[in-house]
Design a protein that fits this description.
single chain, alpha/beta, 11 strands, about 15% strand
Length: about 525
């Protein structure tokens, strides 16, 4: 009995640790190659679970470990809420854990192994889709996003978004599990890896690349950390100085980061005039971000505002998807006390009504995103479908300056560029700022968190439409269809069991007998 308790405790701790391992594939550790094997320890544990109930528990614990490890930098904002949030989100991995035990456990035959190579990745994608809902934190830390700097993976993203990359990564992990633990299924495992390689090769060789058509000189202004009670005013002064230093570089657009202006421009005519003067000096519009209470309606908005030589042009986008706790407190009447124990929002920001595409000189159209929104593939896809030729994400990760967050956030822009076939400018207050071309490759050097500077980038523009922009998240539909068919087949088999005859027990590893 004591040995059984110790075993259960050991397995529980191992599940949490194994679930946390995938964090190594993301920035800042950046061990992207580990993504193809990093799920193996967790899956080996799940396939050996003695019961489905135990597999569900270890899937839950591993999922909670994953959330804490990948999002540990949220502690300054979420504080005590991170652990219960991880426990809640960990439930999303239970179906995946049951699929691992059912399809990869024991000694699966060729048919069951082949089914596992399809359905286990689909089950993982189901958990990613569920937690991608904004109310549950949004699509941050998707496994496919760890491949943001791998050109073949970015090509796959242009076909099926980050979701297709996640499916392929999990499929390779499944194949490795079979290679390690099930000698009889090695043919299916090798065939799976070969199939993933062939798919990637076909996409790499035959899918048309974005057709480069012209370019845009974009200046990114990154002021660096500015503190103090008058931080907003001082930040504006630094941004103004850095922008004025761009004279003679002839940019087509100047981009400031999120919350770069701390007062409503309609109420502060002096700030509006200073921005207009900068635009006139440089001969280029400025895209700034106003984080302030609006004078024409109640509430605080975060808004991308385009400013020309005559002042604000009228093009304005109000942020639609807000960061839970960071920009609003869910169910504030119940959870409002979170503001006293962490850095949760003291007052909820207001949401914008719709995406906006802004016009630039030469017929170029700009699609703005604000911070957290660059994590959502559907938002950038919508802007491109509305005609955006360049995407700009204005961000501020100064709260998490010395964590993994700045590098993780900047990496998301590479995926959005590859998915849409449009360049993405990721401009921040304190770094990491970066620019990516229409294939997802980096354009010029990134601006680190130690920099207070302005830099000009030659951003290539592109024409054409990627399959992801055209067809959307079709991998999710395919995964859900496959899981639905599996459940339907299971229901048919259950109905087919004759009354009085016991249903077949789930497969388990064969018992070894000691001979003496």
């Amino acid at each position: 009995m004591l040995l059984a308790k110790r075993t259960r405790r050991w397995r529980a701790a191992a599940a949490v640790a194994a679930g946390a391992l995938p964090c190594l594939a993301f920035p800042a550790p950046g061990l992207w190659w580990s993504a193809y094997v990093v799920l193996v320890p967790w899956m080996l544990l799940l396939r050996s679970a003695p019961t489905g109930r135990r597999a569900a528990l270890e899937g839950w614990l591993g999922g909670a470990g994953f959330i804490v490890a990948v999002h540990h930098w949220l502690l300054p904002s979420l504080h005590v809420f991170l652990v219960p949030l991880a426990v809640l989100l960990g439930l999303l991995w239970i179906p995946w854990a049951l699929l691992v035990r059912e399809l990869l456990g024991g000694v699966p035959g060729p048919r069951r192994a082949a089914a596992g190579l399809v359905l286990v990745p689909a089950g993982w994608l189901l958990s990613e889709l569920a937690r991608s809902w904004q109310g549950l934190g949004g699509p941050w830390g998707l496994l496919g996003a760890s491949q943001w700097q791998v050109p073949p993976a970015l090509r796959l993203a242009s076909v099926g978004g980050v979701w297709l990359v996640s499916l392929l990564v999990v499929a390779v992990n499944c194949a490795v599990v079979l290679l390690v633990a099930v000698p009889g299924a090695r043919v299916a495992a090798v065939a799976s890896v070969a199939g993933c390689a062939v798919l990637t090769g076909v996409v790499w060789l035959w899918l048309p690349r974005p057709e480069v058509s012209g370019g845009l000189r974009v200046a990114v202004v990154q002021p660096g950390p500015v503190g103090g009670e008058d931080g907003a005013e001082r930040r504006f002064d630094v941004e103004e100085r850095l922008t004025r230093g761009l004279a003679g570089t002839h940019p087509d657009l100047v981009v400031w980061g999120e919350s770069s202006v701390g007062a409503d421009l309609a109420a502060r005519a002096d700030l509006s005039r200073r921005l207009a003067a900068l635009s006139a000096e440089l001969g280029a519009p400025l895209l700034v971000n106003v984080d302030a209470r609006r004078s024409d309606r109640p509430g605080i908005y975060k808004s991308s505002v385009l400013v020309g030589p005559e002042g604000p042009t009228g093009d304005r986008y109000d942020k639609m998807r807000l960061v839970p706790f960071g920009e609003y407190v869910p169910a504030r009447s119940v959870l409002g006390w979170a503001t006293s124990v962490g850095k949760a929002a003291g007052e909820d920001r207001m949401r914008g009504a719709a995406p906006v595409v802004m016009g630039l000189a030469g017929g170029i159209r700009l699609g703005p995103l604000v911070c957290f929104e660059s994590a959502f593939p559907d938002m950038s896809r919508h802007l491109v479908r509305e005609g955006a030729g360049v995407l700009v994400a204005q961000s501020a990760t100064s709260t998490f300056q010395d964590s993994w967050a700045p590098a993780q956030h900047a990496s998301l822009a590479a995926l959005r560029a590859a998915e849409t076939g449009r360049p993405v400018v990721h401009a921040t207050l304190t770094g990491v700022s970066a620019v990516y071309g229409p294939s997802g490759g980096r354009v010029g050097p990134a601006l680190p968190t130690t920099a207070s500077t302005a830099a000009v980038y030659e951003v290539p523009l592109a024409r054409g439409t990627t399959p992801f922009v055209r067809f959307g998240n079709w991998p999710a539909g395919a995964a859900l269809a496959a899981l639905g068919l599996y459940c339907a087949a299971g229901g048919v088999r259950a109905v087919g069991v004759r009354p009085g005859r016991p249903a077949p027990e789930p497969s388990a590893p064969p018992a070894r007998t000691a001979r003496g």
